[in-house]
Amino acid sequence: MAKEKKKPSKLKKLVTPKKIALLMAIISLVSFLYKIGLGVISNSMILIIASLSTAVVCACKFIFWKDMNADRKAKKRSYFFMMILALAFAVLFLLFAVLKVGGIDTSSKNNFKGIVGYIFIAFVILMFVLSIINLKGALSKDDLMVIGIKEMTFVSALADAVIIQEFLYKTIPHYRDIPFMKLINSYFPLIIAVLMIIVPIYMFRRFKEYEAEK
């Protein structure tokens, strides 16, 4: 006698992959609003620009939610939009980095003071670490859009790394005078911007090699 198939539990019916994807997109939206709000309040240009990377990740997650169950052709099209978003943000960040190297101080005062500032930086560091962990194994995935989300998360992590570096630059001198700190503060964002540009270039290569029909 054939065994009866088990009916999906109420929890599985309620918590579907589609709903989880939507929840993750909403969380990214809240994170973006938090970062850009804090950037505006603290008058920190670097925080405002870096928050845009979270907006890009948020947009990509909504794209993923929309087409996660679509065919390969639709997923390739969605991956293309992710690539364009990555390129747009990387170019914007590169312009910001070039201006900083040129001597335009976009955030001259310490906007990360007090316990609130330290809590914020701890949050940014946590997001940076989680982004790096999340990137691990992305290249072994078959789903093009999953890879795209991880690539965009990596770009966001790079932006967070610049926020962390800016915080260290404005905090360490209060305790110890370290040579070349100003030089590092000027050129570190430029190095990060170059790495960001590499990501959409690599995405374009993956886009071209991906077979829409299989």
Task: Write up this protein.
The protein has helices at residues 10-14, 17-42, 45-67, 72-101, 114-135, 144-171, 181-209. Helix 3 (45-67) packs antiparallel against helix 4 (72-101) and helix 4 (72-101) packs parallel to helix 6 (144-171). Helices cover 76% and strands 0% of the residues. With 214 residues, it is mainly α. The model has no long low-confidence stretch (mean pLDDT 78).
* Range of strand content: under 5%
Rg, Cα atoms, Å: 20 Å
Integer average pLDDT: 78
Strand count, sense and closure of the main sheet? none
Instruction: Give the overall shape.
Output: globular
Q: Stretches where pLDDT falls below 50 for ≥5 residues?
A: none
Number of DSSP E strands: 0
Instruction: Kindly report how far apart the N and C termini lie.
Output: 38 Å
Fraction of residues in helices?
A: over 70%
Q: What is the number of helices? A: 7
The helix/strand class is mainly alpha
Query: What is the N-to-C order of secondary-structure elements (H for helix, E for strand)?
Result: HHHHHHH
